[in-house]
Amino acid sequence: MEWFRKVLDEEWEIMPAGGLTGEAYFAKKDSKQLFLKRNSSPFLAVLSAEGIVPKLVWTKRLYNGDVVTAQKWLEGRELRPEEMQKQCVADLLHKIHHSTELLHMLLRMGKKPITADDSIFTVEKRLHANQLMGTSIEIKDGLNYLNTYLPIARQHKQTVCHGDMNHHNLLLADNNQLYLIDWDNAMIADPILDYGRVLNSYIPKENWKNWLKNYGIELDNQFLIRMYWYLIVDTLTYLSFHNERNESDKYEERLIALKELNYQMKLL
């Protein structure tokens, strides 16, 4: 917390904002309230200008080269899981995925688009490193589907993606403005990475067609193949992640999820 004293005087009350990194804090002084973070991405300024995250108030560089950002601290709450079905979520994702300003900024920052070929290469390499390639029929079937449907997975333009779409990262302010926060996993990739996870995690299957219509696309068989393809990539990645941390319970949960995804792919 001492590094924030480099930019704020002693009259500010500073409280940890939680999270794993310990790099974020809330600050309060009289009627002023700020959300402070160290070494946020330069991407934050464009997200603020686009109204996707709470307003960026100032940015300051410390003597050691670290950068501290201050955003407006908004009263509000995270979305509830059932609220992920709302039109405002589809509208916000559509805005993000179609923003040339966000895309140009990530490209200027040196971000390279992640292709379907990149995804399958990375997941196979990590599975090899974890010695998981031949350990279960679920992993074998998942990899078979990835290789079989790779040509279809390639068939979409790449946009800016949030990369961690869950209801905890959606902030509904008291003025009813919806924000998408925590952009540490931002990437340039197939936008189905974002809305595919929303559909699979939060939207009843009978409502998929209508939710996608609200977003602006049609539901067809090739869409479903692409969606399950990337969900399988995601699940295989998490299998390696949990294996590396000896989290056997979570590993088994992901294996069950993979079995269900393989089954859904088989039906297509």
TrEMBL record:
UniProt superkingdom: Bacteria
Domain Aminoglycoside phosphotransferase, first and last residues per copy: 18-217
UniProt cross-references to InterPro entries, sorted A to Z: Aminoglycoside_PTrfase, CcrZ_PhaseVar_Mediator, Kinase-like_dom_sf
PANTHER family: CELL CYCLE REGULATOR CCRZ, PHOSPHOTRANSFERASE YTMP-RELATED
Protein name: Phosphotransferase
